[in-house]
């Protein structure tokens, strides 16, 4: 990387590292629930809380980050473990985004770099705390950076498929899709046989996982709602993130800023749709163009179709199609990167990174409000209501007093990883818990705490 290019990358790295480390806790919506589960898993390895929680006895996708947090909790306090994992993601995402931008266009690598930061690496799932999914995006990026021959090497096939399974099932399926396309087009089926162990893990998981509940009846159905919901989901590719906090009434300036952010997201979505139409979909109206499709472009078309076809709620997961959108966008940008339309439009779309930087700086400016939410968590206060393009950095602030030893252990909110609440476990039993505020063992007599209904319905797959 040349020095002039380094100065284009460093500001993004510094701003994003500060955004997650300056606040009193990592301000990613669901992330602190996963940190809590890593903390509990470490307690179980110490022999504590065995009457309240239990490990899964089958392989679980979407669990790699919790495993890393568990191991870190054995040697460092939970908040330190949380910051280490989140900081590692930021550093790795910046590095991989730069390399992928270089592959998309050497002439406009900086523009592609910032567009990738906005739409893929620091997107809505990142701020919503879907950490396993985001680490899966990193793994998918590493896969895309390999050449075709390297991707077909048996050892790489085994490592990428098993690794993807334990980060996120959709990323695993996206890599399998790429392998299937390559195998069918080039008749090299034997090279991809090492992917079968990951398929076996998935079958084992499906056979043993708890049955999904009935979809939330509050979600409306119908073509009009489905179309609007898909368009809204696509607009979430934009840079504006509406961070809503428990305490604080927005001022007139903040309200204006919010609607301006809505407009930026809609404008970016419109620009991306035009780019996809002009550089990708319109050329495919010629029959001969289908024979010249790259593997990445073909895979992106399949994933876009799945994004559109997925229902609002499926198997306890809200908006499962959204998970298809980001790999599809990465593959599409690879396919159109050198087109003339992309060369003209991408620099303008990349300017939206300025809005992302403002959102990140806003988190730092509101660190006092985030700290106040920890105090409210001591009192059992609730969390704010949903909002368009919303993300709630304080959604699981109630775990901070638990880490400090001021509050009792509560049940876990998402039973979608390798940790489960024991059936009929009594949370008001005596619990021996190691905390980050003292080295000795603390005896608590916690009171039962229910898992809020929003956490059960919001997202069960990180």
UniProtKB/TrEMBL annotation:
<feature type="transmembrane region" description="Helical">
    <location>
        <begin position="259"/>
        <end position="277"/>
    </location>
</feature>
<keyword id="KW-1133">Transmembrane helix</keyword>
<feature type="transmembrane region" description="Helical">
    <location>
        <begin position="155"/>
        <end position="177"/>
    </location>
</feature>
<protein>
    <recommendedName>
        <fullName>EpsG family protein</fullName>
    </recommendedName>
</protein>
<feature type="transmembrane region" description="Helical">
    <location>
        <begin position="80"/>
        <end position="100"/>
    </location>
</feature>
<keyword id="KW-0812">Transmembrane</keyword>
<keyword id="KW-0472">Membrane</keyword>
<feature type="transmembrane region" description="Helical">
    <location>
        <begin position="189"/>
        <end position="207"/>
    </location>
</feature>
<feature type="compositionally biased region" description="Polar residues">
    <location>
        <begin position="447"/>
        <end position="462"/>
    </location>
</feature>
<feature type="region of interest" description="Disordered">
    <location>
        <begin position="437"/>
        <end position="462"/>
    </location>
</feature>
<feature type="transmembrane region" description="Helical">
    <location>
        <begin position="112"/>
        <end position="135"/>
    </location>
</feature>
<feature type="transmembrane region" description="Helical">
    <location>
        <begin position="348"/>
        <end position="365"/>
    </location>
</feature>
<feature type="transmembrane region" description="Helical">
    <location>
        <begin position="298"/>
        <end position="318"/>
    </location>
</feature>
